[in-house]
Amino acid sequence: MFKPKFFSVLSELTPQQIARDVTSGILVGIVALPLAIAFAIASGVSPEKGLITAVIGGFIVSFLGGSRVQIGGPTGAFIVILYGIVEQYGVNGLMIATIMAGVILMLMGFAQFGSLIKFIPYPVVVGFTSGIAVIIFSSQISDFLGLGIDKVPADFIDKWIAYGRHLSAINPESFLVGLLSLLIIVFWPRVSKKIPGSIIAIIAATVLAHYLKLDVATIESRFGEIPSALPAPAFPVFDFATVKQLIMPATTIALLGAIEALLSAVVSDGMIGSRHKSNMELVAQGAANIISPLFGGIPVTGAIARTATNVKNGGRTPVAGMVHALTLLLIMMLFGKWAKLIPMPTLAAILIVVAWNMSEHNVFRKLLKSPKSDVVVLLTTFGLTVVFDLTIAIEIGMLLSVFLFMQHMASLANVNIITRELKDREEEDDPNTISTRSVPDGVEVFEISGAMFFGAASKFKDAMHIVEKAPKVRIIRMRNVLSIDATGLNMLQELLADSRKTSTHLILSGVHAQPLFAMQQYGIYDDIGETNIFGHIDDALDRSRELLGLPKMGKQKDFVPSVQRDNQ
Question: How many domains in the chain?
């Protein structure tokens, strides 16, 4: 369980694969360069700390991690909480909080909490991710427009009030550099996807600003020189009172890091058809967060965009992640002195694009059509993140989810359901058991028991991966799913997308009223198609026979309605 993936794949390290991993690692290192600098500055620390994080943390995550292709480094998810810690406790406080978060992550991993992270409700994750995106966007307005505000307020509302007061002080040259950078980042992928638009924007804007001597703020004017070597390790000054105050921020960092890392690992698993070790991944993330701050780094986690870039460029083993870290170290040593000339409006443009990508605006809009309980959790978590504090948002969002889950279960409970569960009867006692049905070749039937909330949805997705060969028709039995939440709806949508990739026809059976209504609101009902959603397994099997060109058999004599509408 706690064997790093690197040691598990040593036998696969052929010269050809090593060459692909090295090439991918170099490309990912180039992609990570501007992001590492931008995330550090947005977090309230000097730019080299982001590079150090990507080098030290990125190497450890790949060397010790539980994923084949995970790329570790600083990410946008941390910006809000880190900026607040630096403001209140300084860089020393940030080092302490990061080390504490690392210890918490390692404990979570050794306690085998990795699989439990999947149970975090989808609306909570989207709520605070979208909230963080809004805050990141808001924090970049001053540099993008060149407003020259000495101290931008940390509070969201105060920040926009300050922008309004200084709007007349816009620096046209800063705005033009920022706008040019933004346009390059957005449209460059149409020219080439191998080299990121952010690198092209940095080169173009830096050359333009330097040789035309434009009046724009740069890394040098704001932070001075960028070191061209890693600093010697140093321990922070621990103070019990500070440690006590940093417990909750450190826990928030650990939770964010765990969610980001495991989400990235799951996404990459789907891309390469692999399975990561979630607990080993948490241990590696913890080790990276303990060691990185000793060299001056900030929190580390798995970066979804960089990990996806690694996969797309042929990376298939942890070697790619380690090469990515070494590439950044070489860039830092050889070209660090030139990085000081990068204009601040360009870094602001990079972060504005990051914020847009983080916002998950499409998912957010879809979740607004989910059951009311999910919408309440989504909007509450989003609002608290933006207006108040990320730590409070996560705490209250989780509590709301738990209470709403309990309320939902209580409202659904009835004597028949409870009696059926207490009887613990054999499958033969079930008149609608699949064992008494004729299932055609090429058809697979999966049954979900219990409410399709976040836990059940996660387990169901795991079950789907066990099957190696995709069937021609997959029937999902939902007769025991009386309720479905946003995570379940999202899982169904992902399953539908996966089915289309493998040309597998998806059919739903035993769909109750609440899940049916939720699917209609979410838009999945039309995607699956009315002709593929049934109340009873016999109808679903007949639909599969029709698709396979076989004769229908109709309902069996011992047919018992699965849903209420079959009684009518």
Answer: 2
